[in-house]
Amino acid sequence: MQVETIKSASEDSLSYSNNDEDVHNEIEISIDSIENIIRNESFLIKIVIEHEDLLLGESDTIKINSSYKNLIKVYPIDFKISLSYIPNNTSSIAPLVSTPILIKIFEILGDNGSSKPNIESKDNETANERSTSELESSRKLYGMCNIDMLPIILGEITFSEKLLVQSPSYTWDQNIVSWENLSRISITVQQDEIKILEDIDFNFLSITIESMYNLPDNFTNSMNYKCGTILYPHKNVKESCIIFDDGTWTNISNVEKMKSWRSLQDVQSRARLSKYKIDSDFNNIKNDFKSLNLKTIIEPKNKRIKWNVMNRSFLDKKNIDRLKDRLKKYKYWPFEVIVKENVDPSETKRESTEEVIYQFYADISQLIFPGQKKVRVLSQIHMQSLAEMKEKTGLEISIFSNKSLEDCELQSDEIPSTSDCSVYGENGKPVYILVEFELYKTLFPARILEDFTKATEILKNKPKPNKPIYLYTPDLVHDQYIKCIKQLVDVLEESYRDDLTRFKQYLHETGKYLSMQSTLKNKIINLLDQKFPLNSADCFSTKNQDFIVSCYSYLVEQMHIALNTKLDVRFGDEYIDPENPDELWIRAEEAYEYKHYDKANKLLIKIISNDRSNASSWVKYGIYLLKISNNDEAIECCREAIRLNSRHKIALLMYGILLAMNENYSEAEIFIKAVTLFYPRFSEGWVILHLLYVKTEYYPGIDITLQLAEKCLKDRIPDKDTMEILEKEPIAWSTNLCSENRIFILTAVLLLKLNLYNFAGLALTQELSLRQKSVEFLYFFSVNAYLNRNYEIALDYLNQAETIIGTDYSIAALLGHVFYEFGDMNETIKYYEIVDKLYERPENIHLVHLRMGFYFISNRQYERARNIFSRACKQASTCKIWLGFGISNYHLEYYEECEAALIEANRIDDEDPEVWAYLCLLSISLHRYDEFTQCYRQTVKNNLKNDELWRLITRTMDTFNYTTPFVFDDPSKKCTCTAMSWAKQ
């Protein structure tokens, strides 16, 4: 037996209450074994367990026979002690939270102060039988370690750990022992099944003083540094103060970055270290000094005062409420630092040196933010001023000197409150100190998902407004007719596959033939009644008999179109579907720039009608409604999009911002927070939440949201959930100057694309607060002003940007657009031509080419216009582009190219009256009277309002002796009389 019990020792128990009526429970701490003893001798050990300098128990004297031949041997110990506590009692539990259990191992020495070598001989066996009284004449500390009781406090029944037995003291000489050669003990901690904190509301507050940086000249390694704060402001300062001793001047890099226990500050060993580490991430530090580069200040080899000491305190329900109230009233937490010169105790004749007290305030308001448990704060050191301390934190008494504010006011040498109390380092910059606050549970739990679910349920259950019953219109019945043809084709396809040989008979037998006949008949009747109304009195006249033939041709033609669409007749590779949502969006933007608002609205409604179940279609329409300042309907579009897709990023974002613009900030926060919950790496979402907090002056959330946004920006990945229109360039301005590392500029660009100019301006204001007026800021601020139609402001900022960067595509193009709105076409064309000639510009400058081309047409410079439009057609395919190309070719008498361009324009938009007008002119020039007649009727039908173009048509008709074609009287078209009057002239 190599481990022997030599002498018995009583196993003491400790209780933190003297009240016999309280129900006590016990925590059992068991030292199971010791191992990794690198010695070749026999020696005696004794284990002592302490807590807060109180002895919990002392083991029997244990003999260890170690040898180099068996270094991996595990030596069983089986020493147990019991620690008594009162469940749910604050005074009983608080010491277990703040102070770990300290385990000391003593080595029992012989008379000569050393152990005997382990020599394998009969003499050695005789020596081992010496009396224990001779061996216990003295002892020395073999090693120490500590164990945190937090798992037991949080409800664990049992847990085990293997701890390193640290050396008794720090040493840097030949006696240093590497961690691989340190002994290890195995410990088991267990308790009864009753939980310690089962029935009470509690929390833990950990305060860590890390280091002080950028030191003054008089802060040397011969000084003593202490830091102090208070835990309970309602109590006496002496009772609630927490002192962090032994701040150390150093310039050595701290590799391990371990935190030490404040309650074990007297232990001069690594046994004082906890399992918690200093965070290495600088991005999570709350830094109010925007111009300060943290990496240069918190350099591992810089001179600093290092503490890295942690204090953990237990908070009951009352103290939790007091902490909440305090943070709501004062966002700063008070600290003091006392500096004095070290005095050798042996120098009794030397007078004590003067103490200097400094103070600082840590802004920990982020702990009020829901879901936030931790904050690291960089604070600036100031000279002591209790007046300023009271203003910032409410504390009136000094932590170290115990002087009150009233005492200081009576002294004549009191520093005026208006003086600068800041402390500066060697480089003339302020002295900083880094502290950390961490809670076990948040003060205000985050309820993002619960609040969002509730809000969306209310949104989905909200009754839709009763819509009026609309009568049939020509367009509606036309669409119904086309849809009916497509549905009947589906029925035919399903039918003939079942019985090809008896197809017609099958249709009659099943009654489908009669059903289709009846369905088609009803649709034809509705179409004819609404689109071609007839006078019943003239039903059998010759005029109406001819009209029936035209109707039949029209119905067959429309049927063929529907069949070709249904059966997927394939076009060439260059075919672009004009009903494509992207094409409709570009045409709508084009119409808006030319102030054809009804046409733009109609195109966007068509996007919704093509796919009503697509949330993005509603969002696109909402974006357009914001552009025309129709916020109420934009909100309804966002609501419909959220009903269809409750996680649609842009819909949630727009809806939240619109609610904020209506000053409904609580609901706005729910929806914007939902974006950050569903898309946590979406940096613009965090910035918009930051802007909301800036707007509402909610300071706890301002810094943390910006920190998260910057962190997401560094880890930015391509976003797969972004809408297509947000990835494309707007036609009126450019994102060419947008920097990928400027978080507020990126957010402003997104908001400008969404036409949320209020929040875009707020983002640009935040950008200006961080930096001077950069080119990016000037340009996007001018874009915001241009879209808000503040053209004077836009011109001013564009001129400033042009002065800095010179001629740039983005600036020159927007300058041209501004002068276009002023009506100054000379300046407009000047800048447009500069843009067109620039080498470094995008291929597609749609709006520039469009306005240049039509300007040249209006000035009869048809060759230049043709050149512009021929290049524009290769980049964008819109009706307006092809129309301009066709007009320029018509006037140059390139009729073949003109016809191809106008047909393409008509294919894209068959309701553009100018396209029909020029087709009418082209038909006259090519002597095609029948086509001229049809085009003329369509021109009248689509209500051409261009008087100059009407005059050109009538003059051309007179030149070729063309008579005015018969136009069906359509009461819905008010331009018929005007058109006929022009024809008569």
TrEMBL record:
Tell me the InterPro entries matching this sequence. CFAP70, TPR-like_helical_dom_sf, TPR_rpt
The reply to whether Repeat figures as a keyword in the UniProt entry is: yes
Q: Which SUPFAM superfamilies match?
A: TPR-like (SSF48452)
* Entry keywords, A to Z: Repeat, TPR repeat
Q: Which superkingdom, per the lineage?
A: Eukaryota
Positions of TPR repeats: 615-648
Q: Which GO terms describe its biological process?
A: cilium assembly; cilium movement
- Extract the PROSITE patterns matched here: TPR
**What are its GO cellular component terms?**
extracellular exosome; motile cilium
The protein, known as: Tetratricopeptide repeat protein 18
Organism ancestry: Eukaryota, Metazoa, Ecdysozoa, Arthropoda, Hexapoda
